[in-house]
Design a protein that fits this description.
Blueprint (H helix, E strand, L loop, with lengths): L30 E3 L4 E6 L4 E6 L6 E7 L9 H8 L9 E3 L5 E8 L14 H6 L9 H10 L12 E3 L22 E7 L3 E7 L17 E5 L1
Antiparallel strand pairs: 1-10, 2-9, 3-8, 3-10, 4-7, 4-9, 5-6, 6-8
The structure holds zinc ion (ZN).
């Protein structure tokens, strides 16, 4: 069977969590990304998206697509080349797979620990972690969040994993550690082109990336 990047392996409330029919936000309104779900938001060039780690312990998988051609999207591979770093920081531009800035990373009130290395979780990943039946996952949340505003995922780009604590040692080893952010920490991105951003409150409750108690919590965002 051929692989359709837009079709989820299962369903959750991401399908019914759109903020409006086409994802256009009301400026200044605070929206919730429900725990374990994903939400898409449409940005005009020049608008600022603030993502808030309401409880401080939650990782958010984060994507941005060119709203006029979704096969151009924020690309971790291209960002790492441009920044010569695996850790983008406030002040950095964030490139697409066409090496154009789609977002500027303007502010970060957290300690600045985010990840660009790990692929988004998907149902197959959870089966490898011995979860048994279907498990909510960020890949399906991306697919459903785009469906919910009338769009289709053209691919599953590697996400910018906000607040995900994946240390990289000098030897190149990786680990999965709890976030080091605090309640109310926020990151602010400026859209450099018309964009659709998607945020998933990562449902990873097998590894301790969302804290050691296995509790998945909501995130929040607003556009100004
Ligand atoms: Zn995830």
């Amino acid at each position: 069977m051929s692989f359709d990047p837009a079709t989820p392996d299962g369903e959750n409330a991401s399908l019914t969590s759109a903020i409006s029919a086409d994802g256009t936000p009301q400026p200044g309104t605070r929206y919730t990304v429900p725990a374990r779900c994903g939400v898409a938001v449409r940005l005009r060039a020049g608008q600022r998206l603030t993502v808030i780690n309401t409880h401080g312990t939650q990782v958010g998988d984060f994507w941005a697509f060119n709203a006029e051609a979704l096969d151009e999207y924020m690309s971790m591979e291209h960002i790492r080349v441009d920044l010569r770093s695996v850790f983008p920081k406030a002040g950095d531009r964030l490139f697409t797979n066409r090496r154009r800035a789609i977002l500027s990373f303007e502010e970060d009130t957290s300690p600045g620990v985010h990840d660009t290395v790990m692929a988004a979780c998907d149902n197959d990943r959870y089966q490898l972690l011995d979860c048994g039946g279907y498990h909510d996952n960020c890949t399906d949340n991306l697919r459903m969040a785009l469906f919910a505003i009338g769009e289709r995922a053209p691919a599953i780009p590697s996400p910018f994993n906000l607040w995900m604590n994946i240390p990289v040692t000098a030897e190149g080893a990786l680990d999965f550690l709890p976030t080091v952010s605090g309640p109310g920490d926020r990151v602010i991105f400026r859209a450099e082109m018309p964009a659709i951003a998607v945020i998933s409150a990562c449902p990873q409750d097998i590894l301790p990336v969302n804290g050691t108690d296995g509790s998945i919590r909501d995130l929040a965002f607003e556009v100004n």
